Amino acid sequence: MKKVVIVGCGGSGKSYVARELGRILDASVTHLDAAFYDDEWNELPMEKFAALQRELVARPAWVIDGNYNSTLQIRLEACDTVVLMDVSTVAALYGIFSRQIRHGAGHKGNGVHNRIHWGVIKYVATYRRKMRPRVMAKIEEFASGRADVVLLSNRRQTRRWLRKVAAEHS
User: For residue 5, what are the β-bridge partners?
Assistant: First the structure.
């Protein structure tokens, strides 16, 4: 496990898993929200965002968290492991609101990018029905059979899996 893609709904724990895996694997961690948005929430042009991801995946070891379905193929074609944070809608909604309470709004430099508005709530509330099938199809098309795919459906299972990975890499 040297090149890890972490995808899933907002509030599912992607950034936490990325930080932990980066520490365990001694790999660089990139939170795509931090690459895509500046401090005023301006978006990086998509062609520059895609080019940045091509540079990131050319490295020998990395952990990248974030969805960005339009550029997911870049990461999936280069990874050896895909982690899908496949939590329930209720858990994801809890995750975005509890993160807002714990960290406040804005950029925190550790993968935490908080900006709750109706669009974010709607995205999280409809992720399993609308976006998850698209993400699963891309995983199947670009990573299945070549990369290990790990589905983590709750926080307890996630912690257990991280302990297992840590034990294997100690």
Answer: 64, 82
66 alpha-carbon distance from chain centroid: 3
- Which residue(s) pair with 64 in the sheet? 5, 30
The β-bridge partners of 83 are 6, 150
What pLDDT is attached to residue 111?
Answer: 47
107, β-bridge pairs: 113
CA–CA separation, 143 vs 150, rounded Å?
Answer: 12
Structure tokens at 107: 């950029």
pLDDT at residue 4, rounded to an integer: 98
CA distance 25 to 72: 22
pLDDT per residue as tens digits for the range 90-139 = 998 888 777 666 655 554 454 445 566 787 889 889 999 999 999 999 99
Q: How far apart are CA 93 and CA 110, in angstroms?
A: 20
> Hey, what amino acid is at 90?
V
CA angle 152, 154, 159 (to 5 degrees): 75
What are the structure tokens assigned to 1, written together? 């496990």
Helix %, strand %, coil % of the chain (to 5): 55, 20, 25
Local structure of 42: helix, strand or coil: coil
- The mean pLDDT of 48-58, rounded to a whole number, is 95
Secondary structure class of 87 (helix, strand, coil):
coil
- DSSP bridge partners of 114: 106
